[in-house]
Amino acid sequence: MRPASDDPATREALDAHQAGALRWLFGGAIAMVLGVLLGMAVVALVGGTGRRYPGAGLVVVVLVLGGTIGVVAGVGALLRTLRWRRALAGTPWETGRLRIAGPAIIAFEPAGFDELDPDAEPVHLRLLSTAVWRTRAVQGLDGGEVRAAPIGGGQWVLTADGLGTLYGARVVRSRR
Questions:
Q1: Per DSSP, what are the bridge partners of residue 169?
Q2: What pLDDT score does 172 carry?
Q3: Mean pLDDT, residues 51-63 taken together
Q4: Which residues contact 171 (CB under 8 A, 6 or more apart)?
């Protein structure tokens, strides 16, 4: 079987994921730099003129904190992209049906799992993304055919034809 990374749509989705990660990383870095520069400019102005600039401190704090959050999100997304790219290079896609079991809980039923083993259970997954639009996009696939691949550590990556993106999910451990 071909590795999932040989699929042109998969490579394109991974490249798009990486581009988004770089936007978060560089956007956050720019916000941090602007916050520091604005802070230095306000300190210089206040020191030279003695005039106060209400709200300037708040703007500096928001820029620096927002930038820090952006950098952390970008680094995390870059690491996830690299991990997915490496894992998909050695794992083939499995096709199957997606069933929605809750807002972020899904079940992946591999193709033919009923015929292979009548006692087989679908793979229960929880989406890693907390973005509402991503969750709704996956919910729209209820009953549809998807491709999924286990990437290790109890995590899976899934996609469907025409989505142009990958979704990460974690196996839900049963509480038996």
A1: 127, 156
A2: 87
A3: 93
A4: 123, 124, 125, 154, 155, 156
